Known about the structure:
The protein is mainly α. Helices cover about 75% and strands about 5% of the residues.
Amino acid sequence: HKLNLKQQKLQKSLREELRIKEANMLLKQWLMSLDLYLNNREAYIYDSLVDQGEAIIFLNKQFKEKKRLEVLNEKINAGLTLCSAAHQAGKRKLNEIEWLQIISKSDKLTEDLYQALNLYSTDLIIRINMEKEKIYSRQITLKRTLYICPTTFIIFTFLIIKWSNQTIVDPIKLLRKLASKEEILTENFPYKNPIELKSLADTLKQYVHDLEKAKELAWSKTKQLESINIRISSIMETAADAIICSNDKGEIFTMNA
């Protein structure tokens, strides 16, 4: 966005530079017309001189720093006013001495007539060069940013993958391996971070421990039932017609032989 604003500012300055060149051309043409008029002293040349002067004044008012060109506009107006004396209605024709006075005053007015435009043009060129340097610097920075950002992203992604392998994938693989061997012990699981994996390891360890207890209890119950069945089978073989009542532990509390 900033780069776009700087480029827009540069375009405005370049348009201003073109306007200065146009003003210089018009001013040069106006001076030629002024010389032609002072030599020929014809009314139609004066009318053209007025039109050209008004065009220059209008153009000068379009500049961004138009106040700097007010001196130029004043000199053009003064020159037109000076020449208009020869064309006032009802006034006698000027003699040669009066024309020489007009020419002398005109020469003084037109001294350094280009000065205001030249100073403005010089400052504008300096400003344009500075704006170009800023834009170039900004473009270099943008190119570096466009290069650095993907590179940084790739490095960051690689580090994230490496970190996830070390802190998540590898511990989970070890947990699965230990769980398959029923060897989930603290000394067998060296990972302390992240805390969620350590908590998962402790939970799996407790599950395995509970499963071992359940397995031992089931094995004990199975053995106990086998012993009761053997005892009852032995009694039934001894007294086939007997009526036997026993509890869940296989203890006989009533028997009718």
